[in-house]
Amino acid sequence: MLIGHFGVALGLKRLAPRTNLAWLAIASLFIDLLLWVLILGGVEKLIVPADLAHQHYFGFEFPYSHSLLSTLIYAVCFGILGALFAHHFSRIAAALILAFAVLSHWLLDFLVHPPQLPVAGESSTKVGLGLWNTLPIAHGVELAIFVIGLLVYYRSSRSRSKTGKYGPFILFTLIAATSLIGQAVSSGPIDATIVAASSLAMLVIVIILAGWFDTMRVHLSN
Ligand SMILES: [Zn+2]
């Protein structure tokens, strides 16, 4: 689940037209950004299964980034930041939108991950509905969230330049294609550190580009 998270950020632009898309994407992808940093720091763990070509998803030990309890805490922190820094619209709305963006990540991960997501700590109950075990359905759901988010984003804004017009579409379509095809054809052996470093670099680059393209669009206030 990568482009589904970007889909949420894109869709939320409708509710927060004057908040740069990069901030919404940082919120909706915060626990993944944290995950890759913690894996590189040796605090959390990515486990590459021997039958990755058949299974199509990794194993994780990620109690600090992806437990329900920690995600709720991050959501509250983002909500507080949103309320503190909101100047264009209601502090309560800013807090709710950013908190929802953070929490939406866990909810979407809950849908696709097998029971890997801890409720509180690594030894607590692990949950997940496991839609990744039926990859075409998981990808269909993710694609639908992404397409709806992108449509809402385009419908609630207009471009000021060609880069603003085509940039987001090209960027996110490329990310959608590479992430969905990448998961479908994944095969081992893969080094966990390389996965973490490349995933973190890709997220940072996409968020920066998305934020830059967003400045070239005029968002229509609701
Ligand atoms: Zn995640």
Overall mean pLDDT stands at: 93
Which stretches are poorly predicted, pLDDT < 50 over at least 5 residues? none
The helix/strand order is HHHEHEHHHEEHEHHE
**Structural class of the secondary elements?**
mainly alpha
Sheet with most strands: 2 strands, antiparallel
Beta strand %: 5-15%
Helix content: 55-70%
In DSSP terms (H or I, runs of 4 or more residues), the helix count works out at 10
What number of structural domains do the residues give?
A: 1
- Gross morphology: globular
Please state the CA-atom Rg, rounded to the nearest Å.
Answer: 17 Å
Number of strands: 6
End-to-end distance: 29 Å
Structure description:
- Helices cover 65% and strands 7% of the residues.
- The two termini are 29 Å apart.
- The strands form three sheets. A two-stranded antiparallel sheet has the order 1-2. Strands 3-4 form a two-stranded antiparallel ribbon. Strands 5-6 form a two-stranded antiparallel ribbon.
- With 222 residues, it is mainly alpha-helical.
- It has ten helices and six strands, in the order αααβαβαααββαβααβ.
- The longest helix is centred in the C-terminal third of the chain and has 23 residues, at 162-184.
- It has one domain.
- It has helices at 3-12, 21-28, 30-40, 52-55, 63-66, 68-85, 91-112, 135-155, 162-184, 192-214, and strands spanning 45-47, 59-61, 117-118, 126-127, 157-159, 217-219.
- It binds zinc ion.
